[in-house]
Amino acid sequence: PVVGVDWENARMYCEWNHKRLPTEAEFERAVRGDDGRKYPWGQNDPSEELTVYHRPLGVNGLEEVGSRPKGVGPYGHHDLAGNVWEWSQDLYDPYAYRRERSEE
Predict the structure, then answer these.
(1) Alpha helix ranges (H) inside 5-87
(2) Residue 39: strand pairing partners
(3) Is residue 39 helix, strand or coil?
(4) Alpha-carbon distance 38 to 43, whole Å?
(5) CA gap 6, 36 in Å, rounded
(6) What confidence tens digit (pLDDT) does each residue in 21-77 have?
(7) Which residues partner with 42 through β-bridges?
(8) I need a labelling partner for 53 at 20 to 30 A (CA). Which of 40, 84, 93, 104 fits?
């Protein structure tokens, strides 16, 4: 996790690393999977066991990636909720979920 990075910084870092930010639809699928879960870990409300939240930024405000293994997402991703803001390539598009997926 990192703080003090705006969208443009995140985009430029990805470009420098020959990657890209996920689209909002890609991120949403990674978080919710295909079973319609409310949070990456399922339906249970956030807790300190599942994610980092309700903490001020600073020395004790962030946690290492993977520090909440019980909060892992449907595809094995860590830290998809809480801790820091997540940036995506685009904004929410309600029609993105109705379009056919392209093969990349």
Answers:
(1) 7-16, 24-32
(2) 42
(3) strand
(4) 5
(5) 29
(6) 999 989 989 999 999 899 999 999 999 899 887 666 555 667 788 889 999 999 999
(7) 39
(8) 93
